[in-house]
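thread: overnight batch results

M.L. [08:02]
morning all. the overnight job finished for the chain we discussed friday. pasting input first so we're all looking at the same thing
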Amino acid sequence: MAREDAIAAAEGAVLLIERLSPAFTRVDDSGGMLSSAIRGGLEWMVLLIAAAPVSGKDRERWLQRLWQALQDDEMPWIEALGDQWGTLCVDPAIASRWADTCLPTVRRIWHPDTPGHGFFTGTPVCLSSLYAAGRHEELLTLLESPRAERLWHYRQWGARALLALNRRAEALRYAEASRSSWSNAQAIDGFCEAVLLASGMREEAYRRYALTTHRAGTHLATLWAVAKAYPEWPKETIVRDLIASTPGEEGKWFAAAKDAGMLPLAAELARTSPTDPRTLIRACRDYGEKHPDFALAAGLAALHWIARGHGYEIADLDVRTAWQHLGAAARHAGIDDAAVQERVTAAIAGASANGQRYVMSGCKAG
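M.L. [08:03]
and the structure it wrote out:
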């Protein structure tokens, strides 16, 4: 609809936002997947609403409906809408009126003499509106309250205000000072990285923030995210930096290094740090023909870690499968069975007697 009638699309987005919270009131979202989907949906719906060419009166009508939806959002499902209120206002004058509406309540609950920890749905609305209205100094003064101290959810607006005032170094210090055990460290890192990149300080941005800002759901996704943001950096350097940033978890980067084509590094990781045996067995299977030396290293590492008790619910079938793929890789590499057994014996040396017997039990079956 947005391609044909932007106003109708925006009206539909407002209506959908109004219905989200009532629709999911009784839904269990312990895994957070639904909340994440709603946040993503809100982002593009806000853009649809903001882009609609309507009068100030019509926009105010939409904002009143969305405000009521926020008040009725008990779970909450759409609380992220408050942070985007300034975008929804579009007009700085409208944003300023919303800031004035919310300011008295925010000042009251943030006053040092106010008992308890009062909560106001309109706090993010107020901060976002002050920013959108260009009232940056007033916003910074408001955020001096001890109630906002080290709460990045609120202080992000102060950091943005400093950027808008062209005080980049101060914005960076302000963001760093917002760190605490309950702050979103990745969000702070992302803001700081953006400041440095905007200042042309790419190397410092990479060194200080890239490895955490672009952390994704998997190690491979993290590697590609960092590599996309910093194409001038060699991928192997990025992988090694990521490995160094997670001491004790080196083996978890095996699959990322392998899929990125860094087979020697992947083999090194598999040998020196606990790595999921099933991941290693699959690598032995997949690379047995084209890269038999790497496949051998992966298969030997799998048996090495199985003998030492690593892996979740490893079964006899896993051991036999490891031997089968190891044997296939050895044949492609021109290595006979006796030599393979010698290598396995060396790989599992130092493990418990039971671990060694368990691994060798799969030799004949494999």
